[in-house]
Design brief:
- The protein is mostly helical and 125 residues long.
- It has one domain.
- The protein is 72% helix and 0% strand.
- It has four helices and no strands.
- 0% of the residues are buried.
- The mean pLDDT is 82.
- It comes from Drosophila mayaguana (Fruit fly).
- This is Accessory gland protein 2a.
- Keywords: Signal.
- InterPro entries: ACP53EA.
């Protein structure tokens, strides 16, 4: 049985080996592992920040479109999908509120997009 502690030790060992290799890594087949890991770190940070701020953004959006639902409802999957469908209809009928939310998301993500661009994570076409 492999414990969580053992998994951490293995991860630390692997990262230590990668650090020891440092600049001696080989760019095999055009794939730079360190650059890929740096780019993945940027994307994960962006996703994490959006995930943390998504619930408050959705709350603001529901207030903007004046969406009300029964807070005491015991929703099954079908009930949840019905509420989500009604919410999306309200949002699509109010482009001003939707644009406000998209602008907020852009404000959150834009610094990470700049980092991805500066790090040249995406190949130029």
């Amino acid at each position: 049985l492999v414990t969580l502690e053992m998994q951490f030790i293995k991860a630390i060992f692997l990262l230590s080996c990668l650090l020891i290799l440092g600049d001696t890594h080989v760019n095999a087949g055009g794939l730079d592992l360190f650059k890929t890991l740096d780019c993945a770190e940027i994307v994960i940070a962006a996703g994490g920040e959006v995930a943390v701020k998504l619930v408050p953004l959705i709350n603001d959006l529901s207030k903007c479109v004046n969406f009300k639902t029964d807070l005491n409802a015991d929703l099954d999957v079908k009930g949840f999908l019905d509420v989500a469908n009604k919410f999306l209809k309200e949002v699509s009928g109010n482009p001003k509120c939707l644009q406000t939310m998209l602008d907020a998301i852009k404000g959150i993500v834009q610094p990470y997009v700049n980092q991805v661009s500066d790090a040249k994570c995406l190949p130029s076409f």
